[in-house]
Amino acid sequence: MRALPLLLLALAGCGDTLWARSVDAAWTAAVDRVAPAIAPLEDLPEPDGPALRLWLRGQPTAAVLLQETGERRLWRTAGGVVVATEGGRVTATAGLRQYVAATRFEGPDPLADPAALLDRPAGARRLVDLMEGDRSAAGMRFGVALDCRLRAERTEAAEILLVQERCRTSGSLGFTNRFWVEAEGGAVLRAEQWVGPAMPMLVMEFLSPAS
Asked: Which of 32-36, 120-124, 178-182 comes out lowest in average pLDDT?
């Protein structure tokens, strides 16, 4: 999965000076455990079309759909945070202190078939490119390898599965992504995902089936 070209293209069309500077630099692409059920927030009205609800450091914000190509989608908040997703997985971010510039899988993503993970946990390996928000050369890291293990379990709601993805790098970094998915069909409803070693987990909720 390469989210960088799509993200660059969309940001170039946003007209924002900050994004324009990042595009000129050719590196704009880049997005404590939260319970799976959080009551709707009164200050975030339901959108007219596909949208995400994001929690960054516990602060909620809505992100609207900017661009869609198959399973690849690009979302932007009113504050200028941009998140690229493929299915229910974040593949790139921008507008944060640290960016995920691109994500590449070596082989299929086991998250595509979460029900199969109930009986057969699966391994996955992916490479990510990271950069700091100031786009300095010293802050760029390419091809950071994440070795992950995914397993699914049933929740109290029979129609929902919880997929936990435990990942490690070649160093000491370790983290766990969590995805709440429909047992039938495998659509991701809610997720908390790693978006860089200097960032808190990003919590993401799809606000409608169309999202």
From this structure: 32-36
Query: 116 in helix, strand or coil?
Result: helix
Q: What is the pLDDT of residues 2-16, one digit of tens each?
A: 444 444 434 433 433
Phi, psi angle pair for 114, to nearest 5°: -65, -30
Do the beta carbons of residue 129 and residue 141 sit within 8 Å?
Answer: yes
pLDDT for position 42:
37
CA 6 to chain centroid: 15
Which residues lie closer than 8 Å to 170 by C-beta, 6 or more apart? 145
Q: Which two tokens stand for residue 151?
A: 């397993």
Two tokens at 169?
């790098």
Task: Sketch out the chain's domains with CATH numbers.
Answer: 4-199 (2.40.360.10)
Query: Tokens representing 128?
Result: 């990510």
For residue 59, the model assigns a pLDDT of 82
User: How many whole angstroms separate alpha carbon 150 and alpha carbon 123?
Assistant: 6
* CA nearest neighbour of 205 among 67, 8, 48, 50: 50
6: helix, strand or coil: helix
Average pLDDT over residues 59-73: 90
Cα 206 to the chain's mean position, in Å? 12
> Which residue is associated with the tokens 């493929």?
86
How far, in Å, CA of 90 to CA of 73, rounded? 10
The per-residue pLDDT for range 163-187, each reduced to its tens digit, is 999 999 876 679 999 999 999 889 9
